[in-house]
């Protein structure tokens, strides 16, 4: 997760801590262990797409194979590019986290920060959430089982209610460095 690069890129202690040690999911109450097995599609195309999505997450080290804990369902949805995205259904887990308000940049706030002569650029982060590690002691809450194989996310998954806030804080530190 390039923690040493983040150390030289930002003075934001919160961001540096999360990248170095992983995000510690915060809960108002500890979720109970719960097991769910993801259904296997009878459609061979959808089954292959799901297996491809899981293999991709393993390849990029966004998840590991694991054992017992809090389980959710994994499903895939199409992206606008025609590819498929794996989503962890965290509805039950999203009832437990500590909620924190946050302010996202708006188009208006961005326009107000641009001055004549500024250079602009665009960065497209592929699978941006998956660049943020989860603290190992907390990844047990991000598990799923598919085809009798057990997995857990070790990076921030799509589906966690606090993910937009976390990503916004990390990207704000990056934007400050780039300015």
UniProtKB/TrEMBL annotation:
* EC assignment: 3.1.26.4
User: What GO MF annotations does this protein's record show?
Assistant: RNA-DNA hybrid ribonuclease activity
Where does the record place the Reverse transcriptase domain? 58-179
Question: Which SUPFAM superfamilies does UniProt cross-reference here?
Answer: DNA/RNA polymerases
Per the record, the domain of life is Eukaryota
Protein family according to the UniProt entry: Belongs to the beta type-B retroviral polymerase family. HERV class-II K(HML-2) pol subfamily.
The name this protein goes by in its record: ribonuclease H
Which organism is this protein's natural source?
Micrurus lemniscatus lemniscatus
